[in-house]
Amino acid sequence: MGGDHGPPVVVGGVKAYLARHGGEGVRFLLHGDEAAIRAEMTRLRLDPAIIEIRHSDKVVAMDEKPAQAMRRGKGSSLWNAIEAVKTGDAAAAVSAGNTGALMAISKLILRMAAPGLERPALVASWPTVKGGHTAVLDVGANIDSDAAQLIEFAIMGEAFQTAVHGVERPLVGLLNVGSEDMKGHEEVREAHRMLREGAFDLRYHGFVEGTDLATGEVDVVVTDGFTGNIALKTAEGTARLISTFLKEALTSSVTSRVGALIALPALKAMRARIDPNAINGGPLLGLNGLVVKSHGGATAAGFGSAIRIAVDLARSDYLAKVAKNLKRLDAVFDHSADATPDAAAAGESIQ
Question: What is the spatial distance between Cα 306 and Cα 66, in angstroms, rounded to a whole number?
Fold first, then answer.
């Protein structure tokens, strides 16, 4: 029921997923207004055999504050979708609804995957010049991140990149203001030191800069949510700016219009590569369950992409892999705490 368009996009997303990937081994629980959902299913001629509707009168508004949504959200379509993951009725939940409410309710119901984790991390799939995607996290869930949290992001991002994009041994980079060891603030340098020591079974590249986000030099880029969100919004704005400039240039004269017509196949291919709907869907990593956030303004095809990410994660060993490496992280910090009194104090401050 969430997002800018509600059931038409969500139910349309189910059809888009089925058209592209088939329905083998997949079934859907659609939570919300049964009449509205059923009307869309009829309009789109969806087979009801793999779809179950679970009616809810309550909806979390897109502008509702997370605290308010948690107080009054029980029984809403958003709450019930996440509850289905907890009970095992669903392997994953996908929502285009209120991001803050989705994160707060997900954490309340599913809890975090490890005791040391404080909040989920939001990951974005960034298109690269090599034709693949770089996983960038966090892009908005955690404004401040210490060294331990940055390493947690690296662990979760590596597992995500394997599960969703099929990269067997992802290369991890840490976003910084320069590639030299002395650059950046204390927490970034500390995370860099620990990742470089190789205690977490990760392929670690080292520091990367903002210009490396789209080069494909690394498979996973780790940063705090403040920096990551600004980078993401800047990239989205730049993409819109370039599209506007390109459209203006290609329609500015008769000659340019003829040239655009000749170049149309190439332009369509370029548009497909940079279309946000093609890579829509940001999982909330670190939860004890799978929740994927779709952009509120996504098209049906875009929501289908978010469903595909949820299915890929559910079929993978993502949760088990993250749990194993998070235990290794706890062991490293416990060992550091036992080393010296000063180290113990440092370990406590990081945890």
Answer: 22
